[in-house]
Design a protein that fits this description.
The complex is a heterodimer.
Chain A: H1 2-17, H2 28-33, H3 38-67, H4 76-98, H5 100-106, H6 109-112, H7 117-128, H8 133-161, H9 173-188, H10 193-197
Helix pairs in contact in A: 1-8, 3-4, 3-7, 3-8, 4-5, 4-7, 7-8, 8-9
Chain B: H1 2-28, H2 35-43, H3 57-65, H4 78-89, E1 99-103, H5 124-127, H6 146-150, E2 156-159, E3 162-165, H7 175-179, E4 185-189, E5 195-196, H8 204-210, H9 220-224, E6 230-233, E7 236-239, H10 249-253, E8 259-260, H11 267-271
Antiparallel strand pairs in B: 1-4, 2-3, 5-8, 6-7
The chains are: A mainly alpha, B alpha+beta.
């Protein structure tokens, strides 16, 4: 029972409280780059979630059984980048052959997230937080969903911004960044809530 | 010294394993590009305009090779591309239909009114989000000319609050069709007899209240048409151009005059060049 409660806390806090984009400021480039249309934002969000889950499933054993065993914790970043990059390439090959429709749907997003900082951040943070394998996977799922949520919310906001009269100095990327900061402020408000609900 | 060697060995091993796996996978899962698709793709212009209804030239070529699409759908490639594709696939090609964009609205300033004064951003897309636009008819042309801006060949001009298409300039690419928030524009064969000049799907009495030129869904045309090419769906006449022979019987039967042969072969002559 404690375990399930613990997992729910991890899931909710990684979706809302520690949202990777809006409170930890990782993965900002796809957040600003691919959030113009809702369907594209959706595609990117789902691809990132899948890649994050796969990356954690591979990097957690590598860290715990190979790197830690030989005392090579300091090589973490380099090994993880290497593993994640080749993992995404493999996923692309497998999808292209086995599920062509999904491959077409994900399209250009897969190669784009090869070296996404949010994916690397999730895997490293899982290790630093000292999670078990199950906890890591749940936390990763939460991070992916949080990323998807942030993308969807922000693409909705941007489609509304496009249709408004914006003062000239604020047009384009300026108003986008301002909107992003407001969204981020709103998410900061979740701080401490999830832990206290179950306390 | 020993530590460095171990780190070196392990990172190299991880890289090597990943590399070998990638090489194996790409060898095992390699897909030979279909030669027909490649040949068909080379006949297409490659500008990915989307007029064929597919995601791009690659997508259309794939559909053609599988026999899922007709070869005469490429508008920029025209008859030449269609013939070449027909040769490669060994199928007979129907002559290309010359289509032009047509705006299904005749609600000009004289026959319909505004329900509100709209002062927001002057685009149809923005205006249509505010209570369906400023016009009393919620189906009609808003008249800010999103289609005219989208048109790559400057074939659309706004006149009396509605969009008109210059058929001599129209390429038939269908970009205006996708941009119109009211879905007013469709592609019709250039040699057609009649087009329906209305998009109002309300009942006859309600449609008439908001616009004098509206289709009232009386079904007279449906009964008159000898080819059964016209059907009234949702109180609005719809012409099946595959069946239409161009006899023009429907135009005489229409009580509101919204079935017409109205084309603007050269808007420059009709309205003067300054309006384009």
């Amino acid at each position: 029972m404690m375990d399930i409660k613990n997992l729910i806390v991890i899931l909710l806090s990684s979706v809302l409280v520690n949202n990777y984009v809006l409170t930890r400021f990782l993965g900002i480039c796809p957040f600003l780059g691919v959030s113009k249309k809702i369907d594209q934002a959706m595609g990117m969000g789902i691809s990132v979630t899948i890649v994050m889950l796969l990356a954690t499933a591979v990097t957690w054993p590598i860290q715990n059984f190979i790197l830690d065993a030989f005392g090579l914790g300091y090589m973490q970043t380099i090994v993880f980048i290497l593993v994640i990059a080749s993992l995404v390439q493999m996923l692309e090959l497998v999808l292209k052959r086995l599920i062509p429709s999904l491959y077409k749907g994900l399209g250009v997003y897969l190669p784009l997230i090869t070296t996404n900082c949010a994916v690397l951040g999730v895997t490293i943070n899982n290790i630093e937080d000292g999670f078990t394998f199950i906890e890591s996977m749940v936390s990763t799922l939460g991070c992916g969903l949080g990323f998807l949520l942030a993308m969807l919310l922000f693409s909705g906001i941007r489609s509304r911004i496009d249709e408004r009269n914006i003062a000239k100095p604020f047009q384009g990327i300026a108003i986008t960044l301002i909107a992003a900061s407001f969204l981020s402020l709103a998410f900061m408000g979740f701080g401490g809530i999830v832990e206290n609900i179950f306390a | 010294m020993y530590d460095i060697l171990i780190a070196f060995a392990i990172v190299s091993a991880v890289g090597l394993i990943a590399g070998i796996l990638l090489a194996l996978l790409s060898h095992l899962l390699h897909i030979e590009d279909d030669k027909t698709v490649k040949a068909v793709r080379e006949c297409l212009p490659g500008i990915n305009c989307g007029a064929c209804g597919f995601k791009g030239c690659d997508d259309y070529a794939a559909a053609l090779a599988e026999g899922k699409a007709k070869p005469n759908l490429c508008v920029p490639g025209g008859q030449a591309a269609a013939d070449e594709i027909g040769n490669i696939l060994g199928i007979t090609v129907e002559p290309l239909k010359d289509v032009v964009a047509f705006v299904h609205c005749n609600g000009n300033c004289e026959v319909t009114t505004k329900k509100a004064v709209y002062e927001g951003v002057k685009t149809c897309r923005a205006a249509s989000q505010v209570y369906g636009g400023p016009d009393t008819c919620r189906f009609g042309c808003i008249g800010f000319g999103d289609c005219a801006i989208a048109c790559p060949s400057n074939a659309i001009c706004m006149r009396d609050g509605i969009a008109h298409v210059d058929t001599s300039r129209c390429l038939g690419c269908g970009l205006c069709q996708t941009i119109c928030p009211k879905k007013l524009i469709s592609m019709v064969p250039q040699e057609t007899a009649a087009v329906i000049m209305c998009n109002n799907k309300d009942k006859g009495a309600d449609a008439r209240k908001v616009c004098k030129n509206a289709c009232i869904g009386c079904k007279k045309c449906e009964k008159t048409c000898p080819q059964n090419a016209i059907t009234v769906v949702d109180n609005l006449a719809k012409i099946d151009y595959d069946k239409c022979t161009g006899c023009g019987a429907c135009m005489q039967s229409c009580p509101t005059g919204c079935l017409k042969k109205v084309f603007f072969p050269n808007l420059e002559e009709d309205f003067g060049p300054e309006n384009l």
